[in-house]
Amino acid sequence: MLLRCAILVCTLITANTFAMPITEAEFEKLRAEIRQASAQSPLQAIDTTDDILRQNDSQLSTRQKIRLLYGKAWFQIQTDDVHSAISTLSVCKKMSIEVSDPIILYSYYSLTAGALTRMSLYERALENYLESYRLAALMETDMFLKQTENNIGNVYLKLSRFEDAKSYFERFYQDAKERNLPQQMGVGLNNLGEAYFGLGNFKKALSLHLESLKIREANNLTYHSSWSHYNLGRTYLALDNTELAKHHLTEAINIRKQSNAIADSIAPQIELMKLKALTGDTKDLEIMLYDVISLSNEHSRFQEKTHAYQLLVDYFSKKQDWKNSFMTAQQLMQTKFDFLQRQAEIGVAFYAAQMNLAIKERDIAQLTQENELHQINTQAAKSQLILVLVGVLIIALLTLFFVRRINAKNLTQIETLENLKATQKQLLESEKMSAMTTLVSGMAHQLNTPLGLVVTSASCLEAKLKEIHDLLNDQKLSAKQLKKFLEESSEMLEMTANNSGRAADLIARFKMIAASLDSSEAVQFDVLTYLKNRSELITQSLDKNIEIDVYGQSIQVHSHPEALLKVISQLVNNSCSHGFISQSSGRIMIEVREDRDSAVITYQDDGVGINEAEQQQIFEPFYTSQLGQGKLGLGLNIAYNSVVQVLKGKISYEHQDCGAKFVVKIPKRTE
């Protein structure tokens, strides 16, 4: 059962991680969805493209993503969002390094030319169209060739070279008709109508636009039909049929607004205002022109904005409102300047794209060279296969030989390690014996004096007692001699008692070296509160005027409070004995603070401090700076053992310019 569950989980993870790539048939369905959206409006097509890219990111190939992004760039060009189109094309250019396909480069040049045409950069647009035309001629199908001819025709149309444009449009339309492509047929007829309009043949233009509108409406190409209505409005206006001109221009405006192509509705609105100006219907014309100018501003439609300002200048001039006419003329010139500036920006973006193209060509050349080298290396690898196999066999034999040698060395090293461990153990035992010898020697040295005096007193008392006994037996003992004997005996007994007490006191203090003698159980207590309460008792027991200031954070610990008190008491005694030796008063500061899982107690006095030469030995037993003055040198050693052995913490000394400073760090919980 467990194995089945594991297999099921692995299957689910694999299915999510390695998504199946989208086939070409599935990809064409996605493109059909985008085409259907584009029939409504370019903005809807852009949104649909973004949704498809986001939802199928892991399944789409690089080539498929580029093709979708090219479509998005084309729709951005249709909405005059040229900056976004250039940005999208730049992304495609970077991605195309991974793909070796002439169609990808063709689309790049073609779409770049389209963006440049939108900004009236016709010469640069022609350069790119000619490059795409060169690539289209190398392809198996002439569909791309005809599309490029139609694009070149559009540039000639913008340059007023109507005859040249007409020849290109005718070839494009005939090809679309032979292939039975309704959308392309509508485009071809519409473009032919614009060429005849430019040549002044308005009747021919009218018949072509009517035929284009019929095809587009029959195939539900709603948005595309707006172009036919727009051109029909212009044509009827040229033929002085104002009613039909107004009808078709209004239809173009409504379709584009319904398709959310607000920017594209500006041009037919301007034509409608021309119509109103020609017919003398100037009511609300000024307001409508300002609305169009505002809309052009919002959508960065500089050419339409220029036409609107020109109409407004003519309107004010006709009314002889010279002041407004002059001000509007200034705005017209500023708009033209802004358009030229935008042209320059697009030109910079174009050259940046050209630079990227140069990089791609270099990369392709490098990849080609690497591929050739790879083929050479593959051929060489085949001829060297036998040598490789022989080499592998030799390496295997050498590996076996060296493995055996390494195993032998490992055994030797293991034996050496065991010997080192034994030696280390012996050294530890030696260090223990050395430490024990030092401790015993120190204790013997300290006990030797009082015990020696006790023995001496006992010997003297024994001799005196024998002398008195002999005098008593000979009946020669006088009262004076007895009195002297009693006085001397009393002195010697007093000396014996004093030194015996001193020896007992030394032994008791020796016992304090073993911190394990503190048998108190660990309890929960607040360090700050405990030390504050006990500091008063410590102060009262001192023979000097010492102020102890305990402050800091309240920290709960589970430890041995008596051991902690012993440490603080030893530190206070050390300060009184050494730090305040030449002063009758002093101050001790004890700070309690928290450090993660530990309590840190900082002890500091304002005494003479400890010189650097003695700081390395202060925690050693029997080390004192007042040797021969009744000091044993055990206080700091007792504090050290209490902190390390009982409280399971650390104690250290920090050098200060004035006074002594000890830092005690104990865990919050002692097991």
UniProtKB/TrEMBL annotation:
It comes from the Bacteria. Its EC number is 2.7.13.3. Keywords: Coiled coil, Membrane, Signal, TPR repeat, Transmembrane, Transmembrane helix. Gene3D superfamilies: 1.10.287.130, Histidine kinase-like ATPase, C-terminal domain (3.30.565.10), Tetratricopeptide repeat domain (1.25.40.10). It catalyses: ATP + protein L-histidine = ADP + protein N-phospho-L-histidine. TPR repeats lie at residues 186-219. Residues 1-19 form the signal peptide. It is an enzyme of class 2 (transferase). GO terms for molecular function: phosphorelay sensor kinase activity. The chain crosses the membrane at residues 385-403. Residues 442-670 form the Histidine kinase domain. Residues 357-384 form a coiled coil. This is histidine kinase.
